[in-house]
Amino acid sequence: MTLTINQVYPPDRNALVIVISGPSGVGKDAILNRMKERKCQFFFVTTMTTRKQRKTETDQVDYNFVSVDEFQALLQDNGLLESANVYGNWYGVPKKPVQEAISRGLDTIIKVDVQGAANIKKILPDAIFIFINAPSIDELRNRLLRRCTETSADLSLRIQTAQSELEKISEFDYVVMNPCNDIESAIQDILAIVKAERCRVKQRCIRL
User: Per CATH, is 17-198 categorized as 3.30.40.10?
Assistant: First the structure.
């Protein structure tokens, strides 16, 4: 049975926080962009970064691109749910939109790297943690090569990091495979996880 994209739940339910993570190049952005296109009923948090914007990216859609000074000011003001320096650039999840979404009862999706997921787990242990994986490390390497956004040195570093991140799978609640040219199957798995969580006898309770 195929799940419908639009999920409808009682208005008085507890909001869920779904943390999507996995190695660089595994397809997290592609999955979430397709979910947005299909108007899946989630609030998608946009991560902030000091990284340079790529030609294929849109500000405030793919990321909120900010200066280092802007990022550090928000960090000092305790305005970030989590933050990390990854490959020489700062990334962070703004706290305010997450708080507002939870208060409105909206299921919220946060995309972070594996290190960021570990940080969020300390703050929101009742969140749902989903690890997106590729069929193999060779496939992951090929995906990074195809997007042509890394130098040879950066590519080697990302592959090395991915191998260590794969060892963290046991710290997640679920693993979703993202096969080549089959994003829909990954989306259906994510929706199935959310549906299963809604059928739990003891519901998760998010407080932030």
Answer: no
